[in-house]
Amino acid sequence: MYRTYFRFALLLSAAIPFASFSAETRLSINDPYVNLVPPNSQVSAAFMVIKNAGSSDRKLVKAESPIAKTVELHSHTNENGVMKMREVKSIDIKANGQAELKPGGYHIMLIDIRQALKDGDAIPIALSFDDGSKQQIEAPVRKVPITPSAEKGMEHSGMKH
Ligand SMILES: [Cu+2]
């Protein structure tokens, strides 16, 4: 006896690639947090990863928060072993890419903080992008972990020539 069964199974992946290329802003904010600083500190920084699933480059151009009188976009660079912060006009978020705001790199500087930060507090931050879109997020306050790169930076700044 010889029987053949032909079975054609159309397998649909559960993860169908999303292939929409609208000009719409497709930014997502991941893992935002605000550095827990001592209660007497007037400044802190917010960090996050901004993902751009869109097909055009975007820029973060402004950040605002009710907890700080002044909010600036900053870069952090190692200049001859000295870590320096500098205000920047914008932070690039490449198409199909991401901008990482992290200790030792780009960050949102919160200056003249109006209230003492407590671990777990949710800090509202409004982000504005170059296409006119805005995103309102809440970033929890937490202690910044010491990353290997941050540690290296600190070692560098302590080095004597
Ligand atoms: Cu800064």
Terminus-to-terminus distance: 88 Å
Uncertain ranges: 4-22, 151-161
Mean pLDDT: 82
Known CATH architecture: Sandwich
The profile of the biggest β sheet is: 10 strands, mixed
Count of extended strands: 10
- The level 1 CATH classification is Mainly Beta
SSE succession: EEEEEEEEEEH
Please give the oligomerization state of what you see. single chain
What ligands are attached or bound here?
Answer: copper (II) ion
Strand content range: over 45%
Number of helices: 1
Number of domains: 1
What's the SSE blueprint?
Blueprint lengths: L26 E9 L7 E10 L5 E7 L3 E12 L2 E6 L3 E3 L3 E5 L5 E7 L8 E8 L4 E9 L5 H11 L3
Parallel strand pairs: 1-10
Antiparallel strand pairs: 1-2, 2-7, 2-8, 3-6, 3-9, 4-5, 4-8, 9-10
The site of copper (II) ion has 5 residues, from strand 8.
Keywords:
mainly beta, 10 strands, binds copper (II) ion, 7% helix, 1 helix, single chain, disordered C terminus, globular
